[in-house]
Amino acid sequence: xxxVELYHLELRDIGCIACLMxxxxxxxxxxxxxxxxxxxxxxxxxxxxCEPGHHQHGKAGxxxxxxxxxxxxxxxxxxxxxxxxxxxxxxxMKVQFFQRALFHGG
Length: 106
Ligand SMILES: [Zn+2]
Ligand SMILES: [Zn+2]
Prior knowledge:
This protein has 4 helices and 2 strands. With 106 residues, the protein is mostly helical. Strands 1-2 form a two-stranded antiparallel sheet. The longest helix has 24 residues, at 81-104.
């Protein structure tokens, strides 16, 4: 398994980052959403979004990212792709710090 594949598994474990930001708790199942412009597509520049839900198709109380895109998403929730990436990195690093603390005994 490659590092980026491991990263995606970590994001899947953390759950939907938009649910975490909008509702205070993550949800599953999730899809890996590629951020920003299609010309900037990169497997490291991704977040996990619930599917159905924040990614596509929506569900109760949730307007999806696709097909409305960044503008509608930001207008709806007050945050967009950059903020989701930042929070997602924070959540991954919390897991890393926790595992590091366990490994080093404090
Ligand atoms: Zn969600
Ligand atoms: Zn997507």
